[in-house]
Amino acid sequence: MNSTIELLKSHRSIRKFTDQKVPHELLLELIRAGQAAATSNHVQAYTVIHVKNPANREQIAELAGGQTYVATASDFLVFCADMKRPTEAAERIGANVVRGMTEQLLVASVDTALMAQNVVIAAESEGLGICYIGGIRNNPQAVSDLLRLPEHVYPVFGLCLGYPAHEPDVKPRLPVEAVLKEDYYTDDSELVAVFDDAMQTYYGQRKGGNKDTNWSKNLTPLFDSKLRAHMREFLTKRGFGMK
Fold first, then answer.
1. Which of 65, 174, 196, 214 could serve as 135's disulfide partner, Cβ 3.0–4.6 Å?
2. Residues 6+ apart with CB under 8 A from 56
3. Which CATH number is 93's domain given?
4. Which of 165, 206, 184, 182 is nearest to 20 (CA)?
């Protein structure tokens, strides 16, 4: 395997960081690498907020569910899906812009995720650690107000960035046979059962905190309740009407 593939397969979420700061020029290079990601029709429907104010970072840490590493990482970024910039650009040259389409929400969200993953890969290639923070969607309106996000922009997730202060194990992934299918969708329940056994072993032996669980059990909180039921109303109010 080449070094790029090995880097990708070695990804871990880092939640403890040293006091060493990420050089600003390196941060700019990471963002430039992010901008090189694929983007639907070259729309580039994203904006990244570099949250530097310590009080704001503390507040976001609480809004995200008490995730303290939001405040302690060298840098914290909020990746926003942004349809304000491209729709206004089209409007300025005379387009009769239709806003609030579901496809616009999908394009902006996918563009943002692709851009962020490029940033992550570039960061890890420089020895940095990262942790995505989806918890900002627990209180998306409060985060939007804090960051002064305008209509047609919404916060998709945050990203902690810094030099790792611990070395967690690489978490196993589903067997490739479960996610790569030939020609048609096929049942993979047997492969999931095998993976559950592997995850049970992983969690039982994990450095820095083991527990008695597996993959399927960990999914329960996501699907036995209406997770973040506020998101539809929030997105509609921000101009993503999902028409």
1. 65
2. 146, 147
3. 3.40.109.10
4. 165
Q: Is the pTM of this model over 0.90?
A: yes
User: What is the DSSP secondary-structure string of 10-65?
Assistant: T--B---B-SPPPPHHHHHHHHHHHHTS--GGG---EEEEEE--HHHHHHHHHHTT
Q: Which two tokens stand for residue 98?
A: 């239709």
- Angle separating helix axes 189-205 and 215-223, nearest 10 degrees: 100
Place of tokens 């923070």: 133
The answer to the question of residue 241 being in a domain is no
Q: Confirm whether 232 is domain-assigned.
A: no
In a domain, 227, yes or no: no
Number of domains present in the structure of the chain: 1
| Structural domain that includes position 79 | 3-169
56: tokens are 């704001």
- What gap in Å lies between CA 232 and CA 173, rounded to an integer? 30
Q: What is the block-wise mean pLDDT of the chain (243 residues), using blocks of 10 residues?
A: 94 97 98 98 98 98 97 98 98 96 97 98 98 98 98 98 95 96 97 96 85 92 89 96 88
Overall size of the chain counted in residues = 243
- What tokens were used for 20? 């060493």
